[in-house]
Amino acid sequence: MMDLLVTGGAGFLGSSFVRHVIAHTDHRVTVLDKLTYAGNRASLAGLPENRVRLVVGDVIDPDVVDPLVEAADMVIHYAAESHNDRSLSAPRAFVDTNIVGTLTLLEAARRHGTRFHHISTDEVFGDLALDDPARFTEGSPYNPSSPYSSTKAGSDLLVRAWIRSFDLPATVSNCSNNYGPYQHVEKFIPRQITRILRGLRPQVYGSGENIRDWIHVDDHSAAVLAILERGSIGETYLIGAEDERSNLEVIELILSLMGLPSTAYDHVADRPGHDRRYALDPRKIRTEVGWSPQHEHFTSGLAQTIEWYRANPSWWAPTIAGDEA
Ligand code: NAD
Q1: Which domains does the chain have, with CATH numbers?
Q2: How many percent of the chain have pLDDT more than 70?
Q3: What are 169-202's pLDDT values in tens digits?
Q4: For a 10 Å CB count at each end of the chain, is N or C smaller?
Q5: Three-point CA angle 86, 121, 253, nearest 5°
Q6: Which positions are catalytic?
Q7: Lining residues, ligand 1, CB within 6 Å
């Protein structure tokens, strides 16, 4: 039984990880979360109070971070500003949270010799051409496109430097696009689902040919726990389910699963610098850590996700107004 500190544990991925840890281990969890517009206490509802505690605070504040890291056996760092569109209009918070926040946690982990796992994204590698057969590997060069992905790249490099320079017992994982319950409505899949549930047409950026490599959030959480249990210190692991789909394909699937004609969507102006294709090669985590995804079928995972949003408007409806603004 261990004490885990999970930063950003009231967000989409962090709350899935907390639920996964509670269901599959006897560890206790302290969540450190600022509860920004993206954080939601309700995402942790129903978890046992004797095993999960929420501390509302900022990862850039050393006075908050240091005692929590000292008390923990492991830190799993999910907290981040995570939305590409917002990073284009207001990049400063991305530098503060993603870079200075990671630095603050790394310094506390160094002081206390705490095992550290850093959660990152495949977007640090930039994009691939739509017709390029290549996939990213752990050795691919960093080439981020947006303020979001460049701050995540910066945070990854800080972790690598703390491993190399200070022998910090740390690992890094870079995951592809996640889908599943409890994702903020600003993101692609919940945005389309909740628009349809509100009687609005889905909207796709540009031509919609952009390709993303999708993974169910619960598979990501299982992969992170597997790295904590069986990963090698100092290593980076790419996490993906090898399920590439264009945005158009995803919209058409959502429409058909929701009983609507697959053409009932609109195109809107593209995002500046919109990445074309992400694809990653997860062979290292499969062979060296022994993890593989359980949600093999995107269609059934997506159908369950749609049902979750249909059943839980009280979770997502209050966030719509802020998002549209
Ligand atoms: P999210 O926006 O849903 O959650 C982020 C959480 O961090 C929120 O609860 C928010 O309140 C909290 N937070 C933000 N700033 C904070 C601060 N200064 N101090 C403390 N807490 C703060 O994001 P997500 O989609 O769950 O992503 C979590 C992590 O996973 C991020 O590091 C992201 O880069 C990474 N990631 C996400 C995906 C994806 O598909 N969503 C894929 C790969 C990697």
Answers
A1: 3-184+215-243+274-295 (3.40.50.720)
A2: 99
A3: 999 999 999 999 999 999 999 999 999 999 999 9
A4: C
A5: 80
A6: 122-123, 148
A7: 7-8, 10-14, 32-36, 38-39, 58-60, 78-82, 97, 101, 119-121, 152, 175, 177-178, 184
